[in-house]
Each structure stands twice: as structure tokens, then as C-alpha cells.
Specification:
It contains 13 helices and ten strands. With 370 residues, it is an alpha/beta fold.
Length: 370
């Protein structure tokens, strides 16, 4: 409802107050008045006391109370990365081991899996340097500082702010969206970022206003997605705040490197490697651009076989069947090594390749060696 949507979390309060000085929290039981029909005895009342200091610097490690988290359930990445596994998390996490020292999320993308992993330490490995930089920016910046930086960029380039002003202010509605309103300003922002591509804060705003909040670069290395229907709304704000909170609560790091280099890392039998590579069967634009080849596929399986021989546990997300085609390389590899092929129940309802026809069925799997 409207009240719950406007509720501010402890994390957002602390992020703002930490910019001003030292914060202490006083907490006591709170007895809610009721008519006797309900009895909530787990409520707490809090007072946030901030001792303001003129020379204080913002702190990134701001931890919210678990009684008032930014977001319930699995945290969703602010980056809607191609092939993101947020919707599959309830299924795949049940298949993960429970005793993990270091969790390696390889081909991390938006880090939907890594940010929600349960382990003593988490390492997200991603080849795209811009994606890694974006996630590091969100993690390392005090949320209130980051939120203000986003708002400053929005104001500078004249982008919409439906979260504050509403759709009516722009003569638009949720169905038609804000694409026409933001198109000109979005192109200016995109051109500004593409000049030298070193302003990652500009890239973050681009992603927030781009088509489906996705990230894509052309062969020249330029961000080339068009403007989307949405802007920096309440949902985007909560996703960033929740990611910022959890990324600081956990021992989580981001590493920019190719998957072939993970063998150089100190991975032991107590660790776990999860991989979500591009799919060989053409499900996305990276296949159209030749971004993932059969040689990449074979290199990946060779790497996993070597890790298996070292006693390292792994889980591989992939598609074994799509539009009547079968990934025979993966099927034979899994069979020869005796790996388990766990079928997942997931339908790509919003994708143009989805069909009810039998020949167009997509079978997504999680291959495990344990």
C-alpha cells in the first residue's frame, strides 16, 4: 500500500545521518494500542541520536537493523543484466551446498546470485569492466551520497523525477511511460558518458533511464541502449539501497577478469563456484555479436573438469534445449563426467523467443558435481 511504499528503512536513515556525524541508536519495546483483535509483541521503538560534526566524512559501512530491512526476501540487483537469475534464486539456492567458505559468482553480471549468497566470503567475477565498476560504486558509496549524486545528474540533464513529481506533472502515465519525455535529455547524457567513459556515476543514471534498465555497449565500446519507459523511481531507489546495504554487511568483493583466470585464485574444497555463462544456444544479443563461441564453451567445460578433479564443488547455469536445438557439447560433457543435470521450472514470458509450441520449449538447467 501507499504507506508501506513510503516507509523509509533504517539503512536510509543511517546513511543520511552518518554524513553529519556520529550516530547512536536507542531502542525499547513498543506496545501498540489495539482493540484486542490483534497482538503484535515484537515491535520496537527507536531514537536515532546524531552528534553533528562539521568535519565528518561519509562512511560507506552503514548497517540497517534486520527488523527494518530495506527489502524483504532476495535482494534484486539495480542492473537488469541479460540472463540475470533473480527470478530463479528460490530454485537454484536450494541446490547450493550449505557449508561454503568462499562463494565465487563467475560471470556475475548484475550479481543477483552473489549478493544473495550465504558464505563466509563472496567474490563476484565479471569480465565487463563497466559492470564491475558500477557495482563497486554502489557498494563503496554511502547510500545518501550516492542518491544525492544521482539526483544532481538528473537535475543537470533535465531528466524526469516521477518519484517526486508523479506522472501527471509530465502529462504521462505508467502505461505509456516517460520515454518521450526523457529522450532528448537521455541522448545528451549518453553522449556525455561516451566521450571518455570514465564517469561511472553517469553510467549508473544511464542504466536507470535506459531500456529495461539494461547495459549494452556496441563494438566501438559506446553505450548504445535507447531511452526506456521508467526513471529513477521508488523501485530503483529501493534496489540500490538494498544492494548497498547487503554488499557492506557481507565480505563481498568484485573482480574484473576473464573466467579462465579463476584457476589462479586460491580455490579449495571448502569453497563453491557458481557460473552463469552466456548461453551457446542463441538466447541473447551477445550470441548475435559472436560474443560467446563453441571454443569458449569448450574452454569452460575443461576448466570445470579440472576444478572437479581438485575437489572443488561447482554449479553451472545453462540451457540444454532451445527451439528444437540441443547443446550436445554440454550434454555429452555432463554425461561423461557423471554430473547431475537439474532441470529448472522457468518460462521467459516477456521474451520474444517464448512460445508454447513444443519445438520452441526452452529447458534451463543447473549442472552440479556434488
Amino acid at each position: 500500500n501507499a504507506r508501506s511504499q513510503s516507509r523509509i528503512s533504517d539503512h536510509e536513515i543511517l546513511s543520511a545521518l552518518k554524513r553529519k556525524g556520529e550516530v547512536k541508536i536507542f531502542e525499547t519495546d513498543f506496545k501498540q494500542f489495539t482493540t484486542g483483535k490483534s497482538n503484535k509483541n515484537d515491535l520496537r521503538e527507536r531514537i536515532f541520536l546524531c552528534k553533528v560534526s562539521s568535519g565528518v566524512k561519509s562512511k560507506k559501512n552503514v548497517v540497517a537493523s534486520r527488523r527494518n530491512p530495506v527489502q524483504q526476501g532476495f535482494v534484486k540487483s539495480p542492473l537488469n543484466y541479460t540472463g540475470g537469475k533473480h527470478k530463479l534464486l528460490p530454485q537454484i539456492t536450494k541446490l547450493f551446498p550449505k557449508d561454503i567458505d568462499t562463494f565465487y559468482d563467475v560471470f556475475a553480471g548484475g550479481a543477483n546470485v552473489g549478493i544473495n549468497a550465504r558464505a563466509s566470503r563472496i567474490v563476484c567475477v565479471e569480465k565487463n569492466k563497466y559492470v564491475t565498476s558500477l557495482l563497486q560504486l554502489i557498494q563503496k558509496t554511502n547510500f545518501d551520497d550516492l542518491n544525492q549524486k544521482i539526483l544532481n545528474t538528473i537535475e543537470e540533464f533535465g531528466l524526469s523525477q516521477s518519484y517526486i513529481k508523479g506522472y501527471d506533472f509530465y502529462g504521462a502515465d505508467s502505461s505509456s511511460g516517460l520515454g518521450k519525455i526523457n529522450k532528448e535529455a537521455f541522448i545528451k547524457l549518453r553522449d556525455e558518458f561516451n566521450k571518455d567513459k570514465d564517469r561511472i556515476d553517469l553510467l549508473l543514471v544511464l542504466v536507470l533511464y535506459s531500456f529495461n534498465n539494461q547495459i549494452r555497449f556496441n563494438t566501438k565500446g559506446h553505450f548504445n541502449l535507447p531511452v526506456g519507459k521508467r526513471d529513477y523511481n521508488g523501485s530503483s531507489r529501493k534496489n540500490i539501497a538494498a544492494f548497498n546495504q547487503l554488499a557492506n554487511e557481507k565480505k563481498l568483493t568484485f573482480k574484473n577478469t576473464d573466467f579462465r583466470n579463476i584457476e589462479k585464485l586460491t580455490i579449495t574444497g571448502n569453497d563453491f563456484v557458481y557460473l552463469d555463462p552466456p548461453y551457446l544456444l542463441g538466447l541473447a544479443s551477445y550470441n548475435e555479436l559472436g560474443g560467446w563461441t563453441e571454443q569458449d564453451e569448450r574452454d569452460l567445460y575443461s576448466l570445470l573438469t579440472r576444478l572437479d578433479k581438485r575437489g572443488v564443488r561447482f554449479a553451472l547455469s545453462n540451457v540444454i534445449e532451445h527451439k528444437g536445438e540441443t547443446n550436445t557439447i554440454m550434454k555429452l560433457w555432463a554425461k561423461e563426467n557423471g554430473y547431475a543435470v537439474n532441470k529448472l521450472d522457468f518460462h521467459y514470458k516477456n521474451s520474444n523467443y517464448h512460445s508454447t509450441a513444443k519445438d520452441n520449449i526452452t529447458v534451463e538447467v543447473l549442472v552440479t558435481n556434488y
